[in-house]
Amino acid sequence: MHSLDLSIVIVNWNSKQFIEQCLTSIRTNVKFARYEIIVIDNASYDGCREMLENKFPDVMFIQSAENLGFARANNLAYGQSRGQNMLFLNPDTEIQGSAIQILLDALKSIPDAGMVGAKLLNSDRTLQTTCITALPSILNQALASNYLRRRFPNWNLWGMRPLYMKKQDVTAVEAISGACMMAKRDLLERIGCFTSDYFMYSEDMDLCAKITQTGTKIYYVPEAVIVHHGGGSSSHSESNFSSVMQRESLTKFFQLHRGRTYSLMYRASTAVVSICRMALIIGAFPLTVCVKGYKFWFNRTSKWSAILCWSLNISRW
After folding, report:
1. Cα–Cα distance list, 233 to 1, 13, 200, 239 (Å)
2. Where is the Glycosyltransferase 2-like domain (predicted)?
3. Residue 233, Cα to own-chain centre: how many angstroms?
4. Which of 151, 175, 179, 185 is least surrounded, with the fewest CB atoms within 10 Å of its CB?
């Protein structure tokens, strides 16, 4: 028997300070009583337990003896939750006003809604354009660049057109960010919650794909606003490891949802993109070094070299 309206699950990995800010924002802004908060620590042992015992003693804490990754940690907490609805929330988020209540009202009132997501803002309160997105494809991954997203924000390729509509209404979208995902419990039970094949990256896209396959929809609720500081649980600068892990996880995503052939085509396309990027970076060496410095040029070269080696199966991660 699930006696609560909502269970809020937060996965921690070396994010104690962000967790404290996040929980404070929840306590300040969430006024309805029938909810619980579950924090699961992925073997970081960063003092989160002690902080919760001192400042938030009513929060359920789960200590994992190993780093389970995002998907398995959320599933473990989900298994111990009591809410009729689930909110999977990143530790580096801060709730603004009635955001959680607005999301819950939308999830309950829209007949075909299976999951809802909020408008996410960066730390400086600018719009975080990744709060909604299209599901991954070979084409949108091959063309992915900040320049193209800024230059052509309304392309269907990105799936973020609703962010730029004059009239901001609740809108059905392909996918939402894993930083804030609220879903109905009965639906999560039907699809098995998060797919545990992923350690990090793409598990949110996988969940969106599974929900869409049930015939229910995912809605973007712009009235619900949450600040997502981004990078609170990892390095602010993208490492070679994370760059490769993103693509490794996408390979799993494509294999699960598009088949082995499509997955192999994605890997091959990544090799082509990497070669083109390397050629551009090397060709632009003098200008790049003059404008942004040698370190920037070296980091970009190193990143795409690592991706190329992965795509050609020269190195394993």
Report:
1. 33, 6, 12, 13
2. 7-132, 144-231
3. 12
4. 151
Q: Which tokens in the block code for residue 181?
A: 């995902």
Q: What pTM was computed for the model?
A: 0.92
Gap between the Cα atoms of 59 and 96, Å rounded = 20
Tokens of 147: 């320049």
Angle between helices 240-257 and 203-213 (to 10 degrees): 20
What ranges make up the beta strands (E) of the chain?
A: 4-12, 35-42, 60-64, 83-89, 93-96, 113-121, 132-133, 171-173, 175-176, 180-184, 217-228
Residue 233 scores a pLDDT above 70:
no
CB 156 within 8 A of CB 134: yes
Q: Considering only CA atoms, which of 62, 60, 66 is closest in space to residue 35?
A: 60
233 domain-assigned? no
Hunting for tokens 């990256």 — which residue is that?
Answer: 201
Nearest CA-CA partner of 59 in 92, 95, 24, 31 = 24
Q: Which residues contact 75 (CB under 8 A, 6 or more apart)?
A: 193, 194, 196
| Domain shared by 220 and 73, yes or no | yes
Section 108-135 average pLDDT: 96
Residue type, 10: I
Question: Where in the sequence is the domain holding 269, given as residue range(s)?
Answer: 240-311
Q: Is residue 234 part of a domain?
A: no
Whose CA is closest to 181, among 206, 161, 151? Answer: 206
Of 99-103, 109-113, 286-290, the range with the lowest mean pLDDT is: 286-290
CA atoms of 85 and 116, how far apart (whole Å): 11
Find where tokens 């999977």 sit: 88
Same domain assignment for residues 15 and 125: yes
| DSSP 8-state code for residue 155 | -
